[in-house]
Design brief:
Blueprint: H1 2-5, H2 8-18, H3 28-33, H4 35-43, H5 50-57, H6 62-77, H7 79-84, H8 88-95, H9 98-110, H10 116-120, H11 124-127, H12 131-138, H13 144-162, H14 173-192, H15 199-212, H16 217-235, H17 238-243, H18 247-261, H19 264-274, H20 287-301, H21 303-315, E1 330-333, E2 339-343, H22 350-358, H23 360-384, H24 390-409, H25 419-442
Keywords: Membrane, Transmembrane, Transmembrane helix
Transmembrane segments: 49-79, 91-110, 116-138, 145-166, 172-192, 204-232, 238-261, 358-376, 388-405, 412-432
Organism: Cecembia calidifontis
Length: 443
């Protein structure tokens, strides 16, 4: 920790959090003036600046777009290097939607008369892919001080929301919580087994959970998935290596998402028949109430939205190959029997949200790219690496938990206010995997 606190990375992080409370109220010209600065932070390709970048994107202003665009630009400038890292085909696949989205942007600006910034808003889901390549370019400089910088950012930034210093959501909390929950419970297990732990990292997790203990289902379930990943790593099960580190897991997840969203009507009818009452304060009382909460969160809280979006997508078949000019609107039936027409709210499912914004073909391709980044990065690191600081494995497991649950019941993994953290970390893990494979082949 001391190395990071004495570094330039901590200085830039302090600058970022010092303007965090009033970044949204800054004049647009001032926000635009930050563009060269954040380009500098990205183009240095130093992971010690990732904490500052996470802080800068948190309010979701023009500065966040500048960060995402800078990762896109550095990716284009680094194609030869990325090919050497074995990412030629991955990068090509990630760039396939670009011509269609550029044409879409042109149409929105010159045919619909939208402002450039408003036009770019839906594109942050696509631009959210490119921090992965930025992370790959950073991995060689990633050390314990960079790790501590990221952990401190994950610890400090949610404080601004918890203590009401700001009035907007700090979405990095959805990564912070599963990471620190994984660290805490895994460390407790190691202590029971008389194994060594990192006391500093463990203390940070204890403080975080004491301050932010949350009954919110999404973050808790993300942490549970992270712990499951740790269990699979510790048990060294061979099926984990074959399924969770290849294309099979992407296909499996797509099938699971499809089965869930295509059966939402049945789930809604079942919930209405049961007439279950869901109290956020009571679902820990017994295993039965907890199971009911899981069922409600998966099929009740989100099901009306998914059902409406699914019906809309089945009707709008003309957008199979080409994206719509504007994100599609949908109608939904509420559990109380009402109807909401022309809904513009997010769908709370990453795959459906991508299809709604970009059409079926492009939406699915962006989602598949996102899933492959997770497999190639933290997935392979967890199940094929045995080297590195133990907190790296906790960070990888928490990242996977947050990504899996977040993409199923939300869309935040690729949002501009979140992706720079999760996706760039995934890129760093890919770099570690590539370095290990390269060294093994060189021996």
């Amino acid at each position: 920790m001391k190395q990071f606190l004495l570094s330039k990375g901590f200085l830039h992080f302090l600058i970022a959090i010092s303007i965090l409370p009033f970044q949204q109220s800054l004049p647009e010209i001032v926000k635009l003036a930050f563009a060269p600065y954040v380009f500098y932070l990205v183009f240095t390709k130093n992971p010690i600046f990732i904490p500052a970048l996470i802080a800068y994107v948190t309010p979701g202003t023009t500065i966040a777009f500048a960060v995402l665009i800078s990762t896109f630009v550095i990716t284009l400038f680094s194609v030869p290097v990325l090919k050497k890292y074995g990412l030629g085909k991955t990068l090509f696949f990630s760039l396939l939607p670009l011509p269609f989205l550029l044409y879409l942007t042109y149409q929105r600006v010159f045919e619909l008369g939208e402002g450039l910034i408003g036009t770019l808003v839906p594109l942050d889901y696509y631009l959210g892919l490119f921090p992965f390549f930025y992370g790959v370019l950073c991995y060689k400089k990633f050390g314990n001080y960079s790790l501590w910088g990221i952990l401190l950012a994950l610890f400090i930034l949610p404080l601004f929301s918890t203590f009401q210093i700001i009035d907007f959501s700090v979405r990095v909390f959805w990564l912070s919580y599963p990471v620190f929950l994984t660290i805490f419970l895994s460390s407790i297990y190691l202590i029971i087994r008389n194994k060594r732990i990192d006391k500093g990292v463990f203390t940070l997790s204890v403080l975080f959970l004491m301050i932010h203990f949350s009954p919110k289902f999404t973050v808790l379930f993300s942490g549970i998935v992270g712990l499951l990943v740790i269990y699979l790593k510790a048990s060294n099960r061979q099926f984990s290596l074959s399924i969770l580190t290849g294309w099979k897991v992407v296909v499996l997840f797509l099938v699971v998402v499809f089965l869930i969203i295509s059966n939402t009507d049945t789930a809604i009818n079942s919930l209405n028949a049961q007439n279950i009452s869901y109290d956020e304060r009571s679902y820990y009382e017994s295993w039965e109430t907890f199971k009911e909460k899981i069922y409600f969160k998966s099929f009740g809280d989100r099901a009306p939205i998914w059902a409406g979006a699914w019906d809309m997508l089945k009707e709008e078949t003309e957008y199979f190959f080409f994206p719509p000019l504007e994100p599609l609107k949908y109608s939904m039936q509420t559990l109380s029997g009402g109807t909401i027409e022309d809904n513009e709210l997010p769908i709370h499912n990453l795959l459906l949200e991508l299809i709604r914004n970009f059409g079926f073909l492009i939406g699915v391709s962006i989602f598949v790219a996102f899933m492959f980044y997770l497999v190639l990065g933290p997935g392979k690191f967890m199940f094929k690496s045995n080297n590195g600081h133990i907190a790296l494995f906790f960070l990888a497991a928490g990242t996977l938990g947050s990504a899996i649950v977040g993409s199923l019941v939300g869309q935040y993994p690729l949002m501009g206010t979140f992706s720079i953290g999760m996706i760039s970390i995934s890129g760093v893990f890919y770099g570690f995997n590539f370095s290990t494979a390269f060294e093994s082949n060189s021996e």
